[in-house]
Specification:
This protein is of the alpha+beta class and 86 residues long. 45% of the residues lie in helices and 27% in strands. It has one domain: 3-Layer(aba) Sandwich (GIY-YIG endonuclease), CATH 3.40.1440.
């Protein structure tokens, strides 16, 4: 399985999107500062993920969620969750 995921930084409140074939390992890497793009911005909480059978589907979904339309979709989808957590 391949996973598209969204993390929220507990430090600055920003969301980060990625994909991986091992969600637990990747989440640990982000929190341990082992990812170039999120180093120094953790700790993180995993706020959303999707599973895909094909890597190309997970990558495509990641690119969509990073687009303007995808960011609006994600904010709308998580609005109630994020409101309750803050």
């Amino acid at each position: 399985m391949f996973y598209t995921y969204v993390l929220k930084s507990k430090k600055d409140g920003k969301m980060y999107t990625g994909y991986t074939d091992n969600l637990r390992r990747r989440f640990k890497e982000h929190n341990n500062g082992e990812s170039i793009y999120t180093k120094g911005k953790g700790p993180f909480e995993l706020i959303y993920y999707e599973a895909c059978v094909e890597q190309k589907d997970a990558r495509s979904r990641e690119l969509y969620l990073k687009s303007g339309k995808g960011k609006r979709y994600m904010k709308s989808r998580l609005r109630q969750f994020l409101f309750l957590r803050e």
